[in-house]
Design goal:
about 160 residues, Rossmann fold, seven-stranded mixed beta sheet, tRNA threonylcarbamoyladenosine biosynthesis protein TsaE, nucleotide-binding
Length: about 160
């Protein structure tokens, strides 16, 4: 996986929500975002912020046992997936219908089903800081031109926000 990579340091959950809202605001139909990180790194928190950026006010719950939760009421539909427990048979879930659909797909643990992912997706790796519990380092990785463009758009808004 080549492509553009960028890191952002987030000092607290409010900053995590702020960057996530920007991600939701910049998302386009058919975008796929893979969230990677240890348990408790903030993948579901990130998805909640993305939902806010899409204009979804409904409570976002982790789809750990349901695998896929759909939230159709925003600017774009949000398809929130957690594939941690999908050991095999991911191709039978019809994920490509979501990935190629009219919404934004956010896939927790998506790297576990890498062969099912489209060629062009945005991976966000959430790393916890070993010293400060609330601090995160986000690593953005784009696997194709659309994801790389999305990274540039997100970072442009984030940096403008930082230095106002």
């Amino acid at each position: 996986m080549g492509g553009k990579k960028m890191n952002i340091v987030l000092n607290n959950p409010l900053e995590t929500e702020a960057i996530a809202k920007i991600i939701g605001q910049k998302a386009q139909a058919g975008d796929v975002i893979v969230l990677t990180g240890d348990l408790g790194a903030g993948k579901t928190t990130m998805t909640k912020g993305i939902a806010l950026g899409l204009g979804i006010s409904q409570m976002i719950k982790s789809p750990t046992y349901t695998i896929i939760r759909e939230y159709p009421q925003g600017r774009l539909p949000l398809y929130h997936m957690d594939v941690y427990r999908v050991e095999e048979g991911a191709d039978e879930l019809g994920l490509d219908e979501y990935f190629e659909g009219d919404g934004l797909s956010v896939v927790e643990w998506g790297i576990l089903i890498e062969e099912e992912l489209p060629e062009d997706y945005l991976e966000i790796i959430l790393n916890k800081d070993s010293q400060e519990a609330d601090k995160r380092v986000l690593e953005f990785r784009g696997t194709g031109p659309l994801a790389e463009e999305r990274i540039a758009e997100i970072l442009q808004v984030w940096e403008a926000r930082e230095y106002d």
